[in-house]
Amino acid sequence: MSDAMQNAVQDQDLSAAIAQQQISRASFVIDTYKWLSIAIVSFAVLSFVLSSLGVGVAMVNFMAGSKYMWLAYLGGFMVVGWLAANMADTIESRAGQVAGLGLYVVAEALMFAPLFAIAAKVAPGSIWAAALVTLTLVVALTVTAYTSKRDFSFLGSFLKVGGIVALGVIVASIIFGFTLGIVFSGAMVLFAGGCVLYDTNNILRHYPTDRPVGAALHLFASIALMLWYVLRFIMDLARD
Protein backbone atom coordinates (compact mmCIF):
# COMPACT_ATOMS: atom_id res chain seq x y z
CA MET A 1 0.00 0.00 0.00
CA SER A 2 1.38 3.39 -0.99
CA ASP A 3 1.97 6.21 1.50
CA ALA A 4 -0.88 8.19 -0.06
CA MET A 5 -3.32 5.33 0.42
CA GLN A 6 -2.14 4.79 4.00
CA ASN A 7 -2.62 8.48 4.76
CA ALA A 8 -6.09 8.38 3.22
CA VAL A 9 -7.07 5.38 5.36
CA GLN A 10 -5.69 7.05 8.49
CA ASP A 11 -7.62 10.23 7.69
CA GLN A 12 -10.82 8.21 7.25
CA ASP A 13 -10.25 6.40 10.55
CA LEU A 14 -9.59 9.71 12.29
CA SER A 15 -12.72 11.26 10.79
CA ALA A 16 -14.78 8.25 11.84
CA ALA A 17 -13.39 8.43 15.39
CA ILE A 18 -14.15 12.16 15.61
CA ALA A 19 -17.68 11.61 14.29
CA GLN A 20 -18.25 8.85 16.85
CA GLN A 21 -17.02 11.10 19.66
CA GLN A 22 -19.38 13.86 18.53
CA ILE A 23 -22.32 11.45 18.45
CA SER A 24 -21.43 10.12 21.90
CA ARG A 25 -21.09 13.64 23.32
CA ALA A 26 -24.40 14.74 21.80
CA SER A 27 -26.20 11.72 23.28
CA PHE A 28 -24.55 12.42 26.64
CA VAL A 29 -25.70 16.05 26.61
CA ILE A 30 -29.29 15.00 25.87
CA ASP A 31 -29.22 12.45 28.71
CA THR A 32 -27.70 14.98 31.09
CA TYR A 33 -30.44 17.54 30.50
CA LYS A 34 -33.06 14.81 30.77
CA TRP A 35 -31.82 13.95 34.26
CA LEU A 36 -31.47 17.65 35.10
CA SER A 37 -35.13 18.18 34.16
CA ILE A 38 -36.17 15.25 36.34
CA ALA A 39 -34.15 16.67 39.26
CA ILE A 40 -35.67 20.15 38.90
CA VAL A 41 -39.24 18.85 38.67
CA SER A 42 -38.68 16.50 41.62
CA PHE A 43 -37.23 19.37 43.67
CA ALA A 44 -40.22 21.59 42.86
CA VAL A 45 -42.75 18.88 43.77
CA LEU A 46 -40.95 17.93 46.97
CA SER A 47 -40.59 21.59 47.99
CA PHE A 48 -44.32 22.10 47.45
CA VAL A 49 -45.11 19.03 49.59
CA LEU A 50 -42.79 20.17 52.39
CA SER A 51 -44.30 23.64 52.32
CA SER A 52 -47.86 22.26 52.40
CA LEU A 53 -46.96 20.14 55.42
CA GLY A 54 -45.44 23.12 57.24
CA VAL A 55 -42.00 21.51 57.40
CA GLY A 56 -40.18 24.74 56.60
CA VAL A 57 -41.91 26.71 59.35
CA ALA A 58 -41.23 23.92 61.84
CA MET A 59 -37.54 23.88 60.87
CA VAL A 60 -37.25 27.66 61.29
CA ASN A 61 -38.84 27.49 64.76
CA PHE A 62 -36.66 24.55 65.75
CA MET A 63 -33.38 26.16 64.70
CA ALA A 64 -34.19 29.71 65.80
CA GLY A 65 -33.05 29.09 69.36
CA SER A 66 -29.40 28.34 68.61
CA LYS A 67 -26.89 29.47 66.02
CA TYR A 68 -25.15 26.13 66.37
CA MET A 69 -28.24 24.41 64.98
CA TRP A 70 -27.77 26.39 61.77
CA LEU A 71 -24.13 25.38 61.68
CA ALA A 72 -25.07 21.73 62.17
CA TYR A 73 -27.70 22.10 59.47
CA LEU A 74 -25.18 23.55 57.01
CA GLY A 75 -22.58 20.93 57.92
CA GLY A 76 -25.07 18.11 57.49
CA PHE A 77 -26.08 19.38 54.07
CA MET A 78 -22.45 19.57 52.96
CA VAL A 79 -21.77 16.00 54.08
CA VAL A 80 -24.89 14.65 52.37
CA GLY A 81 -24.11 16.69 49.24
CA TRP A 82 -20.59 15.30 49.08
CA LEU A 83 -21.88 11.75 49.56
CA ALA A 84 -24.53 12.17 46.86
CA ALA A 85 -22.06 13.65 44.36
CA ASN A 86 -19.58 10.89 45.08
CA MET A 87 -22.26 8.28 44.43
CA ALA A 88 -23.25 9.85 41.12
CA ASP A 89 -19.63 10.27 40.00
CA THR A 90 -18.07 6.96 41.06
CA ILE A 91 -20.68 4.19 41.32
CA GLU A 92 -20.72 2.07 38.18
CA SER A 93 -24.39 1.08 38.21
CA ARG A 94 -26.93 3.54 36.82
CA ALA A 95 -29.25 2.76 39.76
CA GLY A 96 -26.54 3.84 42.22
CA GLN A 97 -25.91 7.05 40.29
CA VAL A 98 -29.63 7.86 40.24
CA ALA A 99 -29.80 7.17 43.97
CA GLY A 100 -27.07 9.77 44.47
CA LEU A 101 -28.99 12.32 42.43
CA GLY A 102 -32.19 11.53 44.33
CA LEU A 103 -30.42 11.93 47.66
CA TYR A 104 -29.09 15.31 46.58
CA VAL A 105 -32.52 16.51 45.44
CA VAL A 106 -34.01 15.56 48.81
CA ALA A 107 -31.16 17.32 50.63
CA GLU A 108 -31.69 20.49 48.56
CA ALA A 109 -35.44 20.45 49.20
CA LEU A 110 -34.83 20.22 52.94
CA MET A 111 -32.18 22.93 52.72
CA PHE A 112 -34.56 25.27 50.93
CA ALA A 113 -37.58 24.50 53.13
CA PRO A 114 -36.86 27.09 55.86
CA LEU A 115 -35.79 29.72 53.30
CA PHE A 116 -39.01 29.24 51.34
CA ALA A 117 -41.00 29.52 54.58
CA ILE A 118 -39.32 32.81 55.47
CA ALA A 119 -39.64 34.15 51.92
CA ALA A 120 -43.36 33.37 51.80
CA LYS A 121 -43.83 35.44 54.95
CA VAL A 122 -41.55 38.45 54.42
CA ALA A 123 -41.80 38.78 50.63
CA PRO A 124 -44.88 37.11 49.13
CA GLY A 125 -44.37 36.27 45.48
CA SER A 126 -40.60 36.34 45.79
CA ILE A 127 -40.22 32.59 45.24
CA TRP A 128 -41.83 32.70 41.80
CA ALA A 129 -39.91 35.86 40.93
CA ALA A 130 -36.64 34.22 41.97
CA ALA A 131 -37.45 31.10 39.94
CA LEU A 132 -38.13 33.23 36.83
CA VAL A 133 -34.94 35.28 37.24
CA THR A 134 -32.90 32.11 37.82
CA LEU A 135 -34.39 30.44 34.74
CA THR A 136 -33.58 33.50 32.62
CA LEU A 137 -30.00 33.63 33.85
CA VAL A 138 -29.45 29.90 33.36
CA VAL A 139 -30.80 30.03 29.80
CA ALA A 140 -28.56 33.02 28.99
CA LEU A 141 -25.47 31.30 30.44
CA THR A 142 -26.30 28.05 28.64
CA VAL A 143 -26.60 29.87 25.31
CA THR A 144 -23.28 31.57 26.03
CA ALA A 145 -21.57 28.23 26.67
CA TYR A 146 -23.11 26.68 23.55
CA THR A 147 -22.34 29.54 21.17
CA SER A 148 -18.92 30.55 22.46
CA LYS A 149 -15.83 28.86 21.07
CA ARG A 150 -14.00 29.58 24.30
CA ASP A 151 -13.28 26.84 26.83
CA PHE A 152 -14.35 28.07 30.27
CA SER A 153 -12.43 25.42 32.20
CA PHE A 154 -10.13 28.14 33.51
CA LEU A 155 -12.96 29.22 35.82
CA GLY A 156 -12.49 26.10 37.93
CA SER A 157 -9.58 27.35 40.05
CA PHE A 158 -11.24 30.73 40.66
CA LEU A 159 -14.51 29.06 41.67
CA LYS A 160 -12.75 26.75 44.13
CA VAL A 161 -11.06 29.68 45.89
CA GLY A 162 -14.25 31.75 45.78
CA GLY A 163 -16.27 28.88 47.21
CA ILE A 164 -13.90 28.47 50.15
CA VAL A 165 -13.95 32.21 50.88
CA ALA A 166 -17.75 32.35 50.62
CA LEU A 167 -18.16 29.37 52.94
CA GLY A 168 -15.84 30.98 55.48
CA VAL A 169 -17.86 34.21 55.39
CA ILE A 170 -21.13 32.31 55.81
CA VAL A 171 -19.83 30.31 58.79
CA ALA A 172 -18.44 33.50 60.38
CA SER A 173 -21.80 35.24 59.95
CA ILE A 174 -23.56 32.39 61.76
CA ILE A 175 -21.04 32.28 64.60
CA PHE A 176 -20.71 36.03 65.16
CA GLY A 177 -24.29 36.93 64.25
CA PHE A 178 -23.74 39.57 61.57
CA THR A 179 -25.94 39.95 58.49
CA LEU A 180 -24.37 39.34 55.10
CA GLY A 181 -26.75 41.67 53.27
CA ILE A 182 -27.68 42.38 49.70
CA VAL A 183 -24.12 42.96 48.43
CA PHE A 184 -23.07 39.46 49.46
CA SER A 185 -26.21 37.99 47.87
CA GLY A 186 -25.45 39.82 44.63
CA ALA A 187 -21.85 38.61 44.67
CA MET A 188 -23.02 35.04 45.23
CA VAL A 189 -25.43 35.29 42.29
CA LEU A 190 -22.41 36.16 40.13
CA PHE A 191 -20.47 33.28 41.70
CA ALA A 192 -23.33 30.86 40.99
CA GLY A 193 -23.47 32.15 37.42
CA GLY A 194 -19.80 31.25 37.06
CA CYS A 195 -20.57 27.77 38.40
CA VAL A 196 -23.40 27.28 35.88
CA LEU A 197 -21.16 28.41 33.02
CA TYR A 198 -18.31 26.17 34.19
CA ASP A 199 -20.54 23.10 34.60
CA THR A 200 -22.24 23.64 31.25
CA ASN A 201 -18.85 23.99 29.58
CA ASN A 202 -17.72 20.72 31.17
CA ILE A 203 -20.85 18.96 29.95
CA LEU A 204 -20.20 20.14 26.41
CA ARG A 205 -16.47 19.44 26.34
CA HIS A 206 -14.92 17.42 29.16
CA TYR A 207 -17.27 15.46 31.42
CA PRO A 208 -17.07 11.65 30.95
CA THR A 209 -19.83 10.65 28.57
CA ASP A 210 -20.82 7.64 30.66
CA ARG A 211 -21.83 9.84 33.62
CA PRO A 212 -24.85 11.93 32.60
CA VAL A 213 -26.44 11.56 36.05
CA GLY A 214 -23.35 12.95 37.77
CA ALA A 215 -23.15 15.82 35.29
CA ALA A 216 -26.82 16.60 35.91
CA LEU A 217 -26.23 16.62 39.68
CA HIS A 218 -23.39 19.15 39.46
CA LEU A 219 -25.35 21.46 37.18
CA PHE A 220 -28.44 21.13 39.37
CA ALA A 221 -26.35 22.08 42.40
CA SER A 222 -25.12 25.24 40.65
CA ILE A 223 -28.65 26.19 39.58
CA ALA A 224 -29.94 25.61 43.11
CA LEU A 225 -27.14 27.83 44.46
CA MET A 226 -28.19 30.56 42.06
CA LEU A 227 -31.86 30.21 43.04
CA TRP A 228 -30.92 30.47 46.73
CA TYR A 229 -29.07 33.75 46.35
CA VAL A 230 -31.44 35.28 43.79
CA LEU A 231 -34.19 34.66 46.33
CA ARG A 232 -32.05 36.09 49.13
CA PHE A 233 -31.37 39.16 46.96
CA ILE A 234 -35.07 39.71 46.30
CA MET A 235 -35.87 39.25 49.99
CA ASP A 236 -33.21 41.83 50.92
CA LEU A 237 -34.75 44.25 48.45
CA ALA A 238 -38.19 43.68 49.98
CA ARG A 239 -36.87 44.33 53.49
CA ASP A 240 -35.18 47.56 52.37
Automatic annotation (TrEMBL):
What Pfam families does the database record attribute to this sequence? Bax1-I
What is this protein's record name?
Bax inhibitor-1 family protein
* Organism superkingdom: Bacteria
Record keyword Lipid biosynthesis present: no
| Sequence similarity | Belongs to the BI1 family.
Segments passing through the bilayer: 35-62, 68-86, 98-120, 126-146, 158-176, 182-200, 212-231
Compartment(s) of residence: Membrane
This protein's UniProt keywords: Membrane, Transmembrane, Transmembrane helix
Membrane topology listed for this record:
Multi-pass membrane protein
